[in-house]
Amino acid sequence: MAFTKDWIVVITKKDETSLSAANAWMKMIDLSSSVVSPFIAGYIINSISYRFACMIFVVWNLLSVFMEAYIIIRVHNAVPEFAKRDLSPSPDEQRKTECCKKCPGFIQRTIGKWITLFYIYYQQNVFPAAFGLTLLYMTVLGFDGIAIGYAKSQGLSALWLGILRSIGAAFGIIGAYLYSLIETHSSAMKSGFIGLTAQHLALYLCIVSIWLPGSPFDPITYFREITFAIWWQQLKDSFAFVRDKNENETDPNDIDWSTWTSNGHCIISAFTLLIGIAVARLGLYMADLSISQIMQEKVPERERNTVFGVQDSIAQFFSVLK
Questions:
Q1: What transmembrane ranges does the database entry give (predicted)?
Q2: At 263, phi and psi to the nearest 5?
């Protein structure tokens, strides 16, 4: 977060580089790894056992920590401006940090600091747009545990889930590139509006998937047969841990494309849903880059790290709620 949201502003000022282009390139570099990694992960899981695949991922993550630390240190040392930041509080900042002094003493001692941080975030001119972006984390359709669990239950293998995630990342790269082009000829605000509109249109595919073959959507039958006892039992079963007897086996990958079925189950609905999620990445990342750039330009340098930290915390909170 420090590099992509805060440092990048200083780097672009030094090199006279467009902030929108730099943000877009950073996002494209990040998404490029997201194109390759899901496909590789899906192939590894399909080829070897889950146990050895997990060991490979753990070792890679441990090694990448040292590589990332080395690169960050090199970048920090290459830009002297990072060590010259003025951290003396301004009168406006002092007024903001005194906001919680009116609260009762026990609140000041417990969550007073958090109230101050949120107040700084709330006082920004870009608060409505920033908070709107965090709300997307609670409602956005993505390749998270819910979508992956649903797709697996419908018969899609880990390999195909990896391929679809890679397609989603590829659309994200296209969105980042289009954002840079559109922002150059118009503005970040208009680019964000176009991105949100594109995301909205792509999600109609997900709505259509509800009524396609293979969809388990049947609210009439569900509400006709559901009882409190059944609902309560299903809720308890969802928290139960069941050991997979086939945990050392590879994932099945027997999709019959002539009938669009996997293990006898039609996958048209699930496939359409995931394609809609993937295409929506284009508009989503355009909107994300737009709001992030507006925040980078409007938030004072002294408060930038605080504001983006609160922004990320709220976004993760809404993501957990989802």
A1: 40-63, 126-151, 157-179, 191-212, 267-287
A2: 55, 35
> What's the pLDDT at 88?
59
Cα separation, 213 vs 240, in Å, equals: 30
Helix (H, G, I), strand (E, B) or coil at 30: helix
Q: How many CB atoms lie within 10 A of CB 158?
A: 23
pLDDT of residue 189 exceeding 70, the answer is yes
Q: Which residue in this structure is represented by tokens 């340098």? A: 301
Cα(127)–Cα(114) distance, integer angstroms: 17
Element (H, E) at 262: strand 261-262
Which residues neighbour 189 within 8 Å (Cβ) at sequence distance 6 or greater?
290, 294
Tell me the pLDDT tens digit for each residue of 136-159: 888 878 887 788 888 888 888 877
H-helix segments, the chain? 8-15, 19-47, 50-78, 91-97, 105-110, 112-122, 127-139, 145-153, 158-185, 188-202, 204-209, 219-225, 228-238, 268-298, 301-321
Q: What is the mean pLDDT of residues 15-38?
A: 76
**Longest Cα pair distance anywhere in the chain, in angstroms?**
70
Model pLDDT for residues 69-112, shown as the tens digit of each residue: 888 888 778 777 766 665 555 555 555 555 555 555 655 555 66
Considering Cα of 94, then 99, then 104, then 110, what sign does the dihedral take? negative
**Residue 77 phi, psi (nearest 5):** -75, -25
Give residue 100's pLDDT. 54
CB-count burial class (<10 Å; 0-12, 13-18, 19+) for 228: exposed
- Let me know if 46 is exposed, middle or buried by CB neighbors in 10 A (0-12, 13-18, 19+): middle
* Model pTM above 0.85: no
Give the relative orientation of helices 145-153 and 268-298 as an angle to the nearest 10 degrees: 170
Token pair recorded at residue 21: 């282009």
Map out the domains of the chain as residue ranges.
Answer: 93-123, 132-238+253-321
* Contact (CB, 8 A) for 79 and 10: yes
